[in-house]
Amino acid sequence: MQTAIKTRRNPVLMAAWSQLTALTFTVVLVAVSPPLTVFEWAVLQGIMAAFINYILKADVWWIPIQLCFLPAIVATLALGVSPLWFGLGFCVLLLIYGRTDQTQVPLYLSSQAVTQALSAYLPQTKRFSFIDLGCGCGGLLGSLSKTRANGTFHGVEAAPLPCFIGKVKSLRSQSNCSIQWGDLWKQDLSRYDIVYAYLSPAPMKMLWKKICHEMRPGSIFISNTFVIPGVAPDSCVELKDFTGSTLYIWRINPGHNTVSDKSPDLVISSKN
Ligand SMILES: C[S@@+](CC[C@H](N)C(=O)[O-])C[C@H]1O[C@@H](n2cnc3c(N)ncnc32)[C@H](O)[C@@H]1O
């Protein structure tokens, strides 16, 4: 799977490296320092792991995970909690979120305001094709396919459970909407007039390369919330929803694969 992981250091490997380094220091300290309880050693290891992860410039939310990892294992072993619960929890998370360790894109859904703004933006009568890269449970596609019968809507999703839900919903609803289990990096974007993505900051640079390589001149790329570093959009639509979403819109033209610092030509705000 070709993913954003290539653009930055893998946070999971950094976390594992911090834990192992801290564990090695702790084992050395156990041999030379005054006796502590197992839990106290685990807390000390957690503090060291968090500190190492901080030095490695991991995202701030990794710090409490590093801090609590070993103390939590020691505590649950002491309390006799069955490891099956953790296995079960892991499987449920894997089904819902897929390989977020690789993609660095979790599941969160576009708001109703985004659906309405996109619906208003899409062609009213002309035929068009639309893809949602990482379509989650397909809610956005389902709603758009109902309001824009002149469009063909396609979604690709890598996480098993959201994809399954999306597929079931698309089978029961409009014939102009289909959802596929797969990797967005393997999609041929030249087949679509409008490409929509609501991902995370991690893959945006690499996604832009794919867009410039594959999308046809005149086609449209819309990113919810996440900008492409160094490439100003042609227009923005600011929305009044609970996350303060902004739709960034790029019209693809032959010279678009260059980095630009120009300001967007048009900013539309629905805040008032
Ligand atoms: C933030 S959610 C957006 C869901 C939906 N597009 C929406 O707007 O409501 C991003 C989704 O992209 C999926 N995703 C991330 N990387 C992917 C990849 N390489 N291939 C397919 N789906 C991916 C994630 O599993 C997640 O469900």
Fold topology:
Elements: H1 11-32, H2 38-55, H3 62-79, H4 83-97, H5 100-103, H6 112-121, E1 128-133, H7 139-147, E2 151-157, H8 160-172, E3 177-181, E4 194-197, H9 204-214, E5 220-224, E6 235-238, E7 246-251, E8 266-269
Parallel strand pairs: 1-2, 1-4, 2-3, 4-5, 6-8
Antiparallel strand pairs: 5-7, 6-7
S-adenosylmethionine binds at residues 3, 98, 103, 105, 107-110, 132, 134-136, 139-140, 156-159, 162, 183-185, 198-199.
GO molecular function, one term: protein-lysine N-methyltransferase activity
Transmembrane segments: 12-32, 38-56, 68-97
Organism: Nitrosomonas marina
Question: What is the number of strand segments?
Answer: 8
Flag low-confidence runs.
Answer: 1-7, 258-263
Average pLDDT score: 89
**CATH fold label of the largest domain:** Rossmann fold
Q: In CATH, what is the class of the largest domain? A: Alpha Beta
3D structure, described in words:
The protein is α/β, with parallel strands linked by helices and 272 residues long. It folds into two domains: 4-81, no CATH class; 112-269, Vaccinia Virus protein VP39 (Rossmann fold), CATH 3.40.50.150. 44% of the residues lie in helices and 15% in strands. The chain is built from nine helices and eight strands. The protein has helices at residues 11-32, 38-55, 62-79, 83-97, 100-103, 112-121, 139-147, 160-172, 204-214, and strands spanning 128-133, 151-157, 177-181, 194-197, 220-224, 235-238, 246-251, 266-269. An eight-stranded mixed sheet has the order 3-2-1-4-5-7-6-8. The longest helix is centred in the N-terminal third of the chain and has 22 residues, at 11-32. It is elongated. The chain starts with 10 loop residues before the first helix and ends with a strand. The relative contact order is 0.11. The structure holds S-adenosylmethionine. S-adenosylmethionine is lined by residues 3, 98, 103, 105, 107-110, 132, 134-136, 139-140, 156-159, 162, 183-185, 198-199.
